[in-house]
């Protein structure tokens, strides 16, 4: 292994963990005092069988995977870490709005007025039931009508702010943190996976114009909607790449590990006539070295069958979140499921929108084989941890009980009206 550059004075070490349904990935990076881009100095990933649909199902297995992944990353980096930022992809992730309004009396809006409405918004969220992961001002309205991004300097009778809150259930978060702490690591922050993925693979122009980020994970599919630079909606589907793998295993009569490999090497979301003539070697369920041949079309059919169900649900969630119309045309696919051959073209046909595959950017020293859609969350975690800029809600630790119904689609409509 090549010798690692010595840590320079003033450099900060950041360590992050992406604990997913199929794997645990650890990354360590250095951030220099005069550098804007974190430099990766250690990384490792390995399979994890202790998670199910993003939730801890076997505490000991998750602890062991976390310990091994970070230990190997530390050895590669030549450093020992204690504090880590951890991704959250499940645990009942929900997005909702908390809206408050204050009287301005026709005066010019000053910084003190913004501080006042922010304080009122924080105070209006009840501290019970759920854990707040992120909360940011998503929309300001003047006199109940005009939606603005920055109200400073404008005149109004009333000023209202809608805070977009991303929260999770308490017990799953406690289980995840317990598994990480059992591996002798201190969880300094928990970052929602869609927030981290967006930081790594969405451009400022996309988030300003309006885009849906669809993170195709192993156990879950997370959808985050952005407009005018803000996350304005979120939804989660308890279905992902593992479901595709299980369907392939059942259709071909092969073990799940073999089905996963066949999906990666021979699978596709697009069917072509030659699939009926191409034969693929399929390991049998009886084990050993036994192989039998099946048409590749059977593999593709099994994959597409599950994708048809999943993308129909994604399209429904777009409707529920208000991501419709001529300003809702851009979709970015991320996560390990986005590595499937032909999936961008398939998604364009089903969703009727422009679709691209999101690849991570923003780090140096990242191994080339890890510069793929499956590592967007890990990259985003490192970028956010290195910035060390607390969001609006981290000024106060609390929990959140979501209100009845959701105002997210209403906010999306307001934003579209003002684009």
From TrEMBL:
Q: Name one Pfam family in it.
A: FtsA
Membrane topology term: Peripheral membrane protein
Keyword Cell division among record annotations:
yes
Q: Which InterPro entries match?
A: Cell_div_FtsA, FtsA/MreB, SHS2_FtsA
Compartments (UniProt record): Cell membrane
* Record has Protease as a keyword: no
GO terms classed as biological process: cell division
Q: Which residues form the SHS2 domain?
A: 14-201
> Keywords assigned by UniProt?
Cell cycle, Cell division, Cell membrane, Membrane
Source taxon at top rank = Bacteria
Extract the NCBIfam families matched here. Answer: ftsA
What family is reported?
Belongs to the FtsA/MreB family.
Subunit (UniProt) = Self-interacts. Interacts with FtsZ.
Physiological role = Cell division protein that is involved in the assembly of the Z ring. May serve as a membrane anchor for the Z ring.
Q: What is this protein called?
A: Cell division protein FtsA
């Amino acid at each position: 292994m090549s010798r690692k550059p010595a840590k320079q004075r003033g450099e900060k070490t950041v360590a992050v963990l992406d604990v997913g349904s199929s794997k645990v990935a650890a990354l360590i990076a250095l951030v220099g005092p005069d550098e804007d881009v974190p430099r990766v100095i250690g990384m490792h990933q390995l399979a994890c069988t202790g998670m199910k649909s993003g939730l801890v199902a076997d505490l000991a297995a998750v602890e062991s995977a976390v310990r091994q992944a970070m230990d190997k990353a530390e050895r590669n980096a030549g450093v020992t870490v204690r504090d880590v930022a951890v991704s959250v992809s499940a645990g009942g992730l929900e997005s909702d709005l908390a809206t408050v309004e204050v009287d301005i009396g026709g005066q010019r809006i000053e910084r003190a007025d913004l501080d006042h409405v922010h304080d009122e918004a924080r105070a209006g969220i009840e501290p019970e039931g759920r854990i707040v992961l992120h909360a940011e001002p998503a929309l300001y309205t003047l006199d109940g009508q005009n939606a603005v991004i920055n109200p400073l300097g404008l005149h109004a009778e009333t000023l209202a702010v809608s805070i977009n809150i991303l929260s999770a259930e308490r017990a799953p978060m406690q289980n995840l943190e317990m598994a990480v702490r059992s591996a002798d690591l201190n969880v300094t922050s928990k970052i929602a996976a869609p927030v981290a993925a967006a930081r790594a693979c969405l451009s400022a122009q996309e988030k300003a114009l309006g885009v849906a980020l669809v993170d195709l994970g192993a156990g879950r599919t997370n959808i985050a909607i952005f407009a005018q630079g803000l996350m304005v909606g979120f939804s989660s589907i308890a279905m992902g790449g593992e479901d595709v793998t299980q369907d392939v295993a059942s259709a071909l009569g092969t073990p799940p590990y073999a089905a996963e490999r066949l999906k990666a090497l021979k699978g596709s979301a697009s069917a072509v006539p030659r699939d009926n003539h191409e034969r693929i070697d399929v390991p049998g369920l009886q084990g050993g070295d036994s192989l039998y041949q099946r048409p590749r079309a059977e593999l593709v059919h099994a994959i597409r069958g599950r994708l048809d169900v999943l993308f129909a649900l994604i399209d429904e969630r777009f409707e529920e979140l208000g991501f419709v119309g001529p300003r809702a045309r851009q979709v970015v696919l991320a996560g390990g499921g986005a590595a499937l051959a032909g999936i961008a073209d398939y998604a364009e046909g089903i969703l009727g929108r422009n679709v691209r595959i999101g690849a991570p950017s923003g780090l140096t020293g990242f191994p080339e084989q890890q510069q793929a859609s499956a590592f967007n969350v890990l990259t985003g975690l490192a970028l956010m941890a290195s910035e060390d800029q607390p969001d609006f809600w981290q000024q106060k630790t609390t929990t959140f009980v979501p209100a009845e119904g959701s105002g997210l689609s209403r906010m999306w409509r307001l934003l579209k009206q003002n684009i």
